[in-house]
Every structure is written in C-alpha cells, then in structure tokens.
Design a protein that fits this description.
This protein folds into two domains: 3-183 and 299-328, Rossmann fold (3-Layer(aba) Sandwich), CATH 3.40.50; 210-294, Tyrosyl-Transfer RNA Synthetase. 53% of the residues lie in helices and 7% in strands. The chain contains 13 helices and five strands. The strands form two sheets. The chain has a three-stranded parallel β-sheet.
C-alpha cells in the first residue's frame, strides 16, 4: 500500500485553510493509503515559542485532527518530536545538501524578510527537516499546497543525491498530491494573501474553533466587489480574487462543481450566495467544533492516540535509520 505523510504546525488556531486544504483530504485518504499525520512541533520552534503554550497547542492540534475525522486506529497521529529519528535523519541529509539548493528556497526569504541575518539556522534549514520527515517513512505520496511544492521537489533532489552518493536505490522519491477545490484558501479580507494564523485581523480567517455566530459574521463580512456573481468560473479575472476564493470555498465544502455554482448564483448579488455558504460551512464546522471540545475533555484518550501513533511511526523510522546508519558508515547501537 502506498504511504502518505503530512502535518501541520501547532502554532495559533487551526483555520479553514488547514481544514479544506489539508485535513479534509487526509480523512478521505485513510482507506486507500497507509497514513501518518504528525504535528510538526520541530518545525514550530524555528521561531521562538512559549513552551507551555506549545504543549497545549500540540494537544489541541491532535484533538482537531481527530475531530475532523482522522481515525487514530487507521492512521498514525503523533507529535513529530516524539520520533527523534526525524532530527537524526535531518542532520545526515543536511550533510548531503548543497547550500545553493537552500538558497533557492523562497519561503525563507519571505519569512525572514529584512531580518535574515537574525533568523535561526533552523528556519534556514527547515526544508531539509521537511525532507527528512518525508523520506524517513519511505513516503510515496505527499499532499501539499502549491506553496509547499518547491520543498517537496527539494526532498526529491536530496533523496536522489543520497542515492547516487551511496550507489543505492534506497530512498523512495515522493510524489506530490495537490487535491481538492480549495488547496490554497485565501484571506477573507484580501484574496491575494493566503489565509494565515499570523494575520493580525481575526476577520481574515475562519478558525475551526469559531462558534456558528462568528462564522456567520465573518462570511457575511467577507470582501467581494460591486459586480454581480459571475456566470461562469471563466468570467473571473485577476481583479476578482476574493470572489474566486469564496467560490473555491463553497465548492470545497459542498462538493458541487464551480460551473454549477455559477449557474445557480450567476448575475445575482452576493447576499443569497453568502447565506447559503454560511449554512454549508456551519453544517460541517459546528459538529467538528463540538467533537474538538469533547476530545479536549479527555486528555487520557489523546495521550493514548499519540502513544499508539508514535509507536507505529518509530517502528518504521528506526528501521530506516538503521539502514541509513549502515550506508553512511556509522555503528548501529
């Protein structure tokens, strides 16, 4: 069976982009793939974190994974830091990664900005950790957004370089899987910016913990424009990014094709469309929020899930690392 690995950082509230762009697709994959879904807390500390808040956020993220429909008995759910082989493999791969490859990574430039000299080595090298995450489990398929595709290409390059250096067809070259109608959910206030936990405006995103009234208010106030609803997706231009974003969100929630949505609302103003979007959004998000709150009340169950998940992950990871250590020339303990 093919294997999927993916994860989300436990920083800030999980939002609609995390659900529609990742978790919703993960749930659908569980019957067709051997799935590992980690909470990438090693990635989280590439920027300063409050330790107590980080611990809480990790468990909240696990609870939201389960609330979204991920089954801890079908899929391995675990914090990345509970499998130390991630860090060991990162170091080995870092020693096979040319600096020139990392210098081409655009996300470091975006995240570090003008303060790149003050950024941590971890922030600069985290694409190598992402490669280690994927390669550690001989992952065949990785669900990614468009903004992460460059990092997966780097993982493939690193795997190829390692295989050639040791003259072994050892690491599997993972394939990207870009799925769904809303793989890149944009801000409700600015359709050219990705929906983000770090946006200073809470109105820019729908948090998965938002109550139905808050979801309703945010969708009603979501930015559109003065033109009528498009008659066809082809009518959308670059000048209407917010409209395109809401159309994608509706399609992702409902499973209805964008062409059919446009036939229904085309030529109308946005009030009817937004009220219907409120309904289908809350039909999904309210039960998920209720389940999340229930899981938070049962920390023993969450501990059991991550122990079971990390045990499965380590059983795969230790086998990979044992073989890697043999290839590199290290002595296995």
């Amino acid at each position: 069976m093919k294997r999927i690995l993916s994860g989300i950082q436990p920083t800030g509230n999980l939002h609609l982009g995390n659900y529609l762009g990742a978790m919703k697709n993960w749930v659908a994959m569980q019957n067709d793939y051997d799935c590992l879904f980690c909470v990438v807390d090693l990635h989280a500390i590439t920027v300063p974190q409050n330790p107590a808040e980080l611990r809480t956020s990790v468990m909240d993220t696990v609870a939201m994974y389960l609330a979204s429909g991920i089954d801890g008995n079908k899929s391995a759910v675990f914090p990345q830091s509970m499998v130390p082989e991630h860090a060991e493999l990162m170091w080995i791969l870092a020693c096979h990664t040319p600096l020139g490859w990392l210098n081409r990574m655009t996300q470091f430039k975006e995240k570090a900005g003008k303060k790149k000299d003050q950024a941590s080595l971890g922030l600069y090298g985290y694409p190598v950790l992402m490669a280690a995450d994927v390669l550690l489990y001989q992952t065949t398929d990785v669900p990614v957004g468009h903004d992460q595709k460059q990092h997966l290409e780097l993982a493939r390059d690193i795997a190829g370089a390692f295989n050639r250096f040791y003259d072994q067809d050892f690491f599997t070259l993972p394939e990207p899987r870009i799925l769904g109608e809303a793989t890149r959910v944009m801000s409700l206030r600015d359709g050219t910016a990705k929906m983000s936990k770090s946006d200073t405006s809470d109105a820019s995103r729908i948090n998965l913990t938002d109550c139905p009234d808050t979801v309703t208010k945010k969708i009603k106030k979501a930015k559109t424009d003065s033109d009528p609803f498009p008659m066809s997706p082809d009518d959308l231009t670059d000048a209407r990014p917010e409209v395109a974003n809401l159309l994608n969100i509706y399609a992702a929630f409902s499973g209805v094709k964008k062409e059919d949505i446009c036939q229904r609302y085309g030529g109308k103003n946005f009030s009817e469309f937004k009220m219907d979007l409120v309904g289908i959004a809350n039909d999904t998000l309210q039960p998920m929020r209720d389940k999340f709150l229930d899981f938070k009340k049962n920390p023993d169950h969450l501990d059991q899930v991550i122990k079971q998940g990390s045990d499965k992950a380590r059983s795969i990871a230790t086998d990979t690392i044992k073989q890697v250590r043999q290839l590199v020339g290290f002595t296995n303990p």
